[in-house]
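Standup notes
- HV: blocked on the assembly model, inputs below
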Amino acid sequence: MARAGRRPGSSSTADQILISARRLFADRGYQATTMRAIAAEAGVNPALVHHFFGSKQQVFVAALELPINPAALVGRLVAAGPREQLGERIVRTFVQVWRAPETGPQLQAFLRGAVTEDGAARLRHFAEDVMLPKVSAAVGVPKIRLAAAVSQLIGFALTSLIIRIEPLASASEDDVVALLAPSVQRYLDEPSSS
Amino acid sequence: MARAGRRPGSSSTADQILISARRLFADRGYQATTMRAIAAEAGVNPALVHHFFGSKQQVFVAALELPINPAALVGRLVAAGPREQLGERIVRTFVQVWRAPETGPQLQAFLRGAVTEDGAARLRHFAEDVMLPKVSAAVGVPKIRLAAAVSQLIGFALTSLIIRIEPLASASEDDVVALLAPSVQRYLDEPSSS
């Protein structure tokens, strides 16, 4: 599976851009890092960064080395059916990509890394600067309620795929959806209490 | 704060018992490890293991180096008020002990360690062999639903205290309770779907 947000092309130039991007995102954070600064750090023309990756968000997701772009994926799930079943679509897709041999191991490695200072900073920037604003705008739900939904999903990944607590670890996809989807849907439905 | 499940006494003998217990729990798992085997491994009389720790569960919790005994804590919360507010009591207490300076840092270190093979095995044994059976018997809820509640609580700890995603990380205790308690209560209330 191709890395999310990355176009085919010269791998050494693209890799150099990603190395520079990782350094700048880590040092300055997501907001303060510009496409121009990434290009300067990599010693290439800014047009080349746009050519390889398209947008700053896509550079960032590529730099994270995620096998999927969760923000783009949720955007597609919002459009794929009725709003009152969005929680179910999100939980089902989440279980599928975290359990699939093409995407699961890389996602699990990413989650394992999130307990380190650097890994936590990357995931925090991604959630606060890309994922939560984008999804909040798309579905009209306060960011704190989306963060609660994320906490349920990441908690499921941690307990069932990394700690592997039974009977959750070997539960069928349908059973996990029946168990978790109403909680995720509730976070998407109710008005903010804060 | 005294380590949970540990009585005052000779620290070198108690420490030797814990070192032996950790080795046996890691090698054989919780079920197959007996108080007698722990005593033999530590080169002490089995009565001394009972004297210091009381029960195998208490040796195990002490060997985990948790600042609290979650299974005992949930037992007290079940008895502390009406069943329909148990989710709220659990979430409120969870937020308090994970944020308190006396207990929070040790719990966070434990959770960070849970992404390693050894740390995951310890937490898995604790959940499967101590926590879930004990709480399931106390509240009459299927283990898979309790595991779902655990996944929400651990996911909150990971996203808000370790990854520190805003606006969840700095939300007030009351806001976190309003947000998460209905989800936890739902896991405790509904019949199993599996």
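- HV (later): unblocked. Residues 117-139 of chain B form the longest helix (23 residues). The CA atoms of residues 55 and 118 of chain B lie 23 Å apart.
- Next: hand off to the docking folks.
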